[in-house]
Write a structure and sequence with these properties.
Blueprint (H helix, E strand, L loop, with lengths): L8 E8 L2 E9 L3 E5 L4 H8 L3 E5 L4 H7 L5 E4 L7 H5 L6 E4 L9 H7 L2 E4 L5 H16 L2 H9 L3 H6 L10 E5 L3 H14 L2 E5 L12 E2 L2 H7 L2 E4 L13 H4 L7 E4 L8 H10 L4 E4 L19 E3 L8 H8 L1 H9 L10
Parallel strand pairs: 3-4, 3-5, 5-6, 6-7, 8-9, 8-11, 9-10, 11-12, 12-13, 13-14
Antiparallel strand pairs: 1-2
Helix pairs in contact: 1-13, 5-8
């Protein structure tokens, strides 16, 4: 820290026969801006090292207005830490993201400024994987539609039409065999006897369960269920579009618990309307929340979930642990989970 340029440094001076002597030179506590929802316990941990300002859901201008003298900022899913935001924060040392993806943070602009970005890559692995498997079961065994029809006194017809596929007779195609994809594959393979095929842009090493690496077109053609577990990047944006869906079997179901922009919602809705896709379960949307005219809201055979994949007590607690890495950076210690 350069005390001469820091307006928050306090100098204690006294006069003497020999001139002015500096008695003490102390810096104010770091300013930490927390955006969206973090647990009270997380804010309490931050207050042990700095002064915390909480913003519920700031837009870009509102965030800029409080970052001129901030040392750290924490965000969740929706707050955008853009290049413009970073340029307005000359003192910023660290950006924390409670969650896995960092697409709402300009990581390159942060790196150019020497600002550390930290996140919680393993926080919600089990929670998201379990919701994924739950959505697969709900689609394949028609759980949601069966519930609705029983409530409308259509019991006999609903029971007649409630024939669904057992997962042991299905091939599961996993796009992205990272932490979450691995857990989904393990549950499906060892728990249900499901055949697993997958595609990833990097080698994944030993998995601990049977799974075959295939190309994307091969996966689309073979899978009875396709589930997406990729981060949102320029390579994955719009990954499941009309061209990809053309390779799917009409009996295939699609699960997305990754990011909404990974699939083309209009193309998926059209495939559902035309019978070229048997069903879909969607936990994430582009944009969020989905507006009334979002094409998936009116498509048939769709289960819609409110971005709830990580919403378990343990998952949320682990996301709050990003504050430990923020504190580490502020104290000059290396963080556990920096984004590189």
């Amino acid at each position: 820290m350069s005390y001469a340029r820091d307006p928050r440094v306090t100098l204690s001076l006294t006069g003497s026969a020999w001139g002015v002597n500096i008695i003490a030179m102390t810096a104010a506590r770091p300013k930490i801006v927390g955006c969206e929802h973090y647990a009270d316990t997380a804010f309490e941990r931050l207050r042990t090292v700095g002064d915390v300002v909480h913003l519920e859901s700031p837009n870009e201008d509102e965030l800029i207005a409080v970052l001129d003298d901030a040392d750290a900022v924490l965000v969740r899913t929706y707050t955008q830490v853009t290049k413009r935001v970073l340029q307005a924060a000359p003192r910023l040392k660290v950006v924390g993201r409670g969650g896995v993806g960092v697409e709402n943070i300009d990581v390159q602009a942060a790196a150019a400024r020497g600002i550390t970005v930290v996140h919680t890559p393993a926080a919600a692995t089990e929670a998201v994987a379990e919701l994924t498997v739950g959505l697969i079961l709900a689609l394949e065994r028609k759980i949601i539609t069966g519930d609705a029809r029983v409530r409308t006194d259509d019991f006999a017809a609903a029971r007649h039409e409630a024939i669904g596929r057992e997962l042991g007779q299905c091939t599961l195609g996993i796009i992205g065999m990272g932490r979450i994809g691995r857990v989904v594959g393990r549950i499906a393979s060892t728990g249900f006897g499901t055949r697993v095929v997958y595609n990833d842009i990097i080698g994944v090493g030993p998995l601990g369960f049977p799974a075959e690496s295939v190309s994307k077109p091969e996966l689309y053609a073979a899978a009875d269920v396709v589930t997406l577990h990729v981060t949102l990047t320029n390579l994955t944006r719009g990954l499941i579009d009309a061209e990809a869906l053309a390779h799917f079997k009409p009996t295939t179901t699609l699960i997305n618990t990754a990011r909404g922009a990974v699939l083309d919602g209009a193309a998926v809705a059209a495939a559902l309307h035309d019978g070229r896709l048997a069903g879909a379960a969607i936990d994430v949307f582009d944009p969020e929340p989905p507006p009334p005219d979002h094409p998936l809201r009116s498509a048939p055979n769709v289960i819609l979930s409110p971005h709830a994949g990580a919403r378990s007590p343990r998952g949320q607690a682990r996301m709050n642990d990003v504050v430990d890495d923020v504190i580490a950076v502020l104290e000059g210690r290396p963080p556990r989970y920096p984004v590189t």
